[in-house]
Amino acid sequence: MAVTMNDVARAAGVSLKTVSNVLNDYEFIRPATKQRVQDAIAELGYEANLTARSLRSGKTSMLGLVLSDLSAPYYAELASKLMKAAARHGYRVMVEQSDAEASVELGALQGTFRQLTDGLLFTPLVVDADAIAARAGNKPMVMLGEHILDPRFDLVTMKNEEAAAALTRHLLAGGRRRIAVVGANTGESAGTAGLRLNGYRKALEEAGVPFDAALIAPAEWRRDTGAAAVAGLLESGVEFDAVFGLNDVLALGAMHELLIRGVKVPQDVAVAGFDDIDEARFASPSLTTVSPGMDEIAERSIGLLLDRIAGRETSEQGVHVEAGFELKVRESAP
Predict the structure, then answer these.
(1) Four-residue CA torsion sign, 183, 187, 191, 197
(2) Sign of dihedral through CA atoms 239, 241, 246, 250?
(3) Chain-centre distance for alpha carbon 58
(4) Separation between Cα atoms, residue 114 and residue 140, nearest integer Å
(5) What is the 3 state secondary structure string of the chain?
(6) Mind listing the domains of the chain with CATH numbers?
(7) Is there a contact between 24 and 53 (Cβ–Cβ < 8 Å)?
(8) Is the pLDDT of residue 39 over 90?
(9) Quick one: average pLDDT of 178-183?
């Protein structure tokens, strides 16, 4: 027979209400009483009916997280940090991988996934702001990333333009004048790639270095495409003395291609990336990159979402937060 809350109450010598308060983390309970209840729960093997508790309280102590691709190192590391930040506040995180499909992104805003969570951390890549607003419902939601910049939504993001400009200035200060950019299209100005390209162009303009569209190599943000983009530049005869991969995996793929072709890094071509994933530190040579404040992004997005859930943040307009960044200068572009 299943152990009940009444069994726990009798074993601990407390009321049923006290057991309920302990299970729901009610703060005004004497530590000794709380310990007795927890000991009884452990001894009897009581398992709370979370579904029933959530129906009674309207809270699940679960947060939803929608990311496009958990195989991407940045997203994997961010998800880990978000889970740890949520756990420090007594929350768990359910993760949905969207694969940048509109149906999955929109589906996460409604239905079971949304019902099982008290709030949502959302990184949309396909759907637009109006489509999200039409389906968002009343539960709190915090956007991550740069795809949606809309005053209706809370947003935690990074200083893409400023950080890209800082990295480009570092390459320029090292004497590099022909800096190839891998991972953008020449005309982009919005979204993550566009903002980072804007920062690159701004730094060139400040230094009086002309922008050359031939140095912009489009590529999906993967290692193999970073390698292929650099191979294309080399085979086209375009001269360059540095590569700025708009994320670290692009830069690592580019650096691999340079090295196997006998191009010395950084002597012949400096290489830099963006994101400071763990792999960047252990590459050979180690990768110069931008650390975009991933810990701060995790802490502030969880904090903002929980403030909305608890009613501590009452602004009707979306709160927009930009995390700080740090330039990590390593062997690939000293």
Answers:
(1) positive
(2) positive
(3) 28
(4) 10
(5) CCCCHHHHHHHHCCCHHHHHHHHCCCCCCCHHHHHHHHHHHHHHCCCCCHHHHHHHHCCCCEEEEEECCCCCHHHHHHHHHHHHHHHCCCCEEEEEECCCCHHHHHHCCCCHHHHCCCEEEECCCCCCHHHHHHHCCCCCEEEECCCCCCCCCEEEEECHHHHHHHHHHHHHHCCCCCEEEECCCCCCCCHHHHHHHHHHHHHHHHHCCCCCHHHEECCCCCHHHHHHHHHHHHHHCCCCCEEEECCHHHHHHHHHHHHHCCCCCCCCCEEECCCCCHHHHHCCCCCEEEECCHHHHHHHHHHHHHHHHHCCCCCCCCCEEEECCEEECCCCCC
(6) 5-44 (no CATH), 62-158+294-324 (3.40.50.2300), 160-291 (3.40.50.2300)
(7) yes
(8) no
(9) 98
Mean pLDDT is lowest, of 34-43, 282-291, 308-317, for: 34-43
Tokens 């191979």, residue located? 231
